[in-house]
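Long-time lurker. I teach an intro course on protein structure, and each term I like to show students one example going from raw sequence to a predicted 3D structure in token notation. This year I'd like something fresh instead of my usual example. Would anyone be willing to generate the tokens for the chain below so I can use it in lecture? Attribution to the forum is fine with me.
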Amino acid sequence: MAAGYLEILRARHATRLLVGTLVGRLPNATAAIAVVLFVRAEGGTYSLAGALAAVYGVANAVGQPVLGRLVDLYGQPRVQLPAAVVSALGMAVFALAGTDPVALACAAMAVAGLFTPPLEGGLRALWPSVLREEEQVHTAYAMDAVAQEVMFTVGPLLVTLCVSLWSAQAALLILAVIGVLGALSVVVSEPSRAWRSAPREAHWLGALRSPGLLALLGAFLFIGIALGSITVAAVSYADVHGGDAVYGWMMAGIGLGALLGGVVYGARRWGGAPERRLRVLVALLAVCYLPLMLVPGPVAMTALATLAGVFLAPSIACAFVLVDRHAPAGTVTEAFSWLVTTFTVGASVGTGLAGPVVEWGGAAWGFAVPGVAGAAALVVLLATGRVLGVPGRGGVVAVSSENDPNRAVEPRFSSGDRA
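-- Reply from a regular --
Happy to contribute to a lecture. Here you go:
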């Protein structure tokens, strides 16, 4: 199982790009908890903390596809690093000025979120130029999904450690600096500097003119809703069964399940059409959400939460393959950024939906929301099967010198973006 991952990590530049991207995305992964802890340390209310975190999240959702399109047009170094610096400055202003005046705090959070560099989409655009075989690229997508789960688990722990050692203000400033260093590590690398998007057709919709991509985004909006609703239902469950510790174990269980599922999925070479495989994975994801409605004791509930996460990372990794296939030429970074935005928006919607449901029917009915959302995602995939089955472009072995600064011609995997 480890052989496939080691082969990728041994590839030139691969480890640096993966680690640099994860480090650069730490501010984004930890923004919510860092903002809440800082606002509380400043004496602010949870309502204010939630509002500021929401401002950051909405701005981030807007900025990712916009910056992704700019990356496709102008290259990674000219967009990613300046964006990272501006985002860090916004976070620094928030940390140094505090929550008073509130208007300044909101503006700083908006800047920090809007200019968060699309490192996630950028990495997925780089994989085909770093790895020479299509199967390696697919395994890298799975490894990327697994690494996300690790980051979203470790990130909050790092924030709380910084707060306990120094202060919430120091945590914000340290995260801002770390984000810039991660982006810098990526953009000065040879693959990032050499990468050029394929020639693109001028169109105001950009990547969204692809019907297949729109279908995929529709499905993953509901998967985002499922994840967002689980967090609210889990809080309600934990309030009755042991408090914050139980909530932490449940969230860790979901992360562990996703990690294990992603590792196993990426270690195997899969045959058949990826759109068919995605339907199966999403169906299994939806089914595994349903046992949460049983709301047993904390130990059993943690086990069910782990089961609920098993098919998450494989579904995301498979979606990456389809995004790459359906993104119009010259829009690959933007297309991946739209997936990030859709997932984020879905999670926010899920959080809002689950609240009233939990108040009405308790935790058991709250856990029904992810099951329904997962089923809705499957319905979208089934209804758009014909569209998803006709990719706008396919993975082929091509001869291209687009990413070679010396214009040396060599065969390599290309997803149609020649990126």
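Some talking points for your students: The chain has a mean pLDDT of 84. The chain has 19 helices and two strands.
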